[in-house]
Amino acid sequence: MSRNPRNQMYPANEDLPAAGGSGPIVRLWRIRTELLLVAALVLVAMTLLSATRQGAWLPFILVSSAVSAPAVTRTGRNWVMAHIWCVISRHRLQRVCLETTMHTRAGRIPLVLWITPTHTGEKALILTRAGISAEEFEAYSEEIAAACWSRSSHVYRHQQRANLVIVEIVRRDEVAGTASPGLDRLYGRRAWVALRSELEEPPDLRGTLVLPQLG
Length: 215
Description:
CATH topology of the largest domain: Threonyl-tRNA Synthetase, Chain A, domain 2
CATH architecture of the largest domain: 2-Layer Sandwich
Number of strands: 7
Structural class: alpha+beta
Oligomer: single chain
Strand order of the largest sheet: 1-2-4-3-5
CATH class of the largest domain: Alpha Beta
Radius of gyration: 20 Å
């Protein structure tokens, strides 16, 4: 039976199990970026406070310059915004799993192992839970695109490890200079299978899709 958003995992007369039954370690993993950012800000603030109390202005100037450098260059601002979108997209992907059937009966959702910026948006490497497959993500591709405020989303499955899924979020035309994810260095560029019929080639994990040539 082909999957689509209307082919629910659970019977129609059964209430959808409540999501969010993950343990504290998994919950901390989901907000790891925010925790690291807070820790870095606290460390910087303590360093600056200690330097000013001791009258050492050179560390204060160096740290302040390093922190403010991204704000004064276009490349720095693009880098910061690209990674902010990664954090936003990760939380929106988790929200889609919570609001749809892409969670287990115990309420556990797939893990977003890694999400990185591309030339057209973001790519997320996802570890699925038992009972959830890449086809489930493809069935909800439109919901994923809407939740992430993007143009579209594409889903790719690993050829040998079916529990590994890449969700590509396309939100703009290709922008040069954006950092690439480098997932091909981990699993190989040809290791991924597109689930949508019009995408016959695996994704170019440097930020673009390799589309079949016409004619």
